[in-house]
Amino acid sequence: QVVLVESGGGLVQAGGSLSLSCAASGRTFSWRAMGWFRQAPGKEREIVAAINWRGDNTYYAQSVKGRFTISRDNAKNTVLLQMNTLKPEDTAIYYCAADQMVTRTVVSTLGQADFGSWGQGTQVTVSS
């Protein structure tokens, strides 16, 4: 069981940057792939980015590729999402999630059903 707490959301103007952090508790964090998801009002929750347990394989949704960067620090039990060049369409609640499996090396095929632990979410609002 991994307990996740997101922070770092807020209000930013279009073109600006935000850094989201996900603090994890639980001894198995460092063995699990991690993902960031988002859900905008009236829309389905979608995956934004994912990173494998070692931090050497990542996945990005096409809509954020080149603007967002996911990283992790297993020594500190944290996962970060650096968001640059933000757009109004990035406005959503952002969730951190942990893989149900351990030692997954490739994350490009992961979907919501693969993640078993979720944070409470943090609001990101991008004004135009």
Note down, in words, how this protein is organized.
The chain has 128 residues and is mainly β. Helix content is 0%, strand content 48%. It has strands at 3-7, 10-13, 18-25, 34-39, 46-51, 58-60, 68-73, 78-83, 92-99, 115-118, 122-127. The strands form two sheets. Strands 2, 4, 5, 6, 9, 10 and 11 form a seven-stranded mixed β-sheet that branches. A four-stranded antiparallel β-sheet has the order 1-3-8-7, with no helix packed on it. It is globular and about 40 Å long. 36% of the residues are buried. The model has no long low-confidence stretch (mean pLDDT 97).
List keywords for this structure.
mainly beta, 4-stranded antiparallel sheet, single chain, 7-stranded mixed sheet, 128 residues
Topology diagram in text:
Blueprint: E1 3-7, E2 10-13, E3 18-25, E4 34-39, E5 46-51, E6 58-60, E7 68-73, E8 78-83, E9 92-99, E10 115-118, E11 122-127
Parallel strand pairs: 2-11
Antiparallel strand pairs: 1-3, 3-8, 4-5, 4-9, 5-6, 7-8, 9-10, 9-11
Portion of residues in beta strands equals: over 45%
Number of strands: 11
Percent helix: under 10%
Give the helix tally: 0
How big is the Rg?
A: 13 Å
The major β-sheet equals: 7 strands, mixed
- What is the straight-line distance between the termini? 39 Å
Low-confidence region ranges: none
Order of helix and strand elements from N to C terminus: EEEEEEEEEEE
| Structural category | mainly beta
Q: Mean of residue pLDDT?
A: 97
Overall 3D shape:
globular
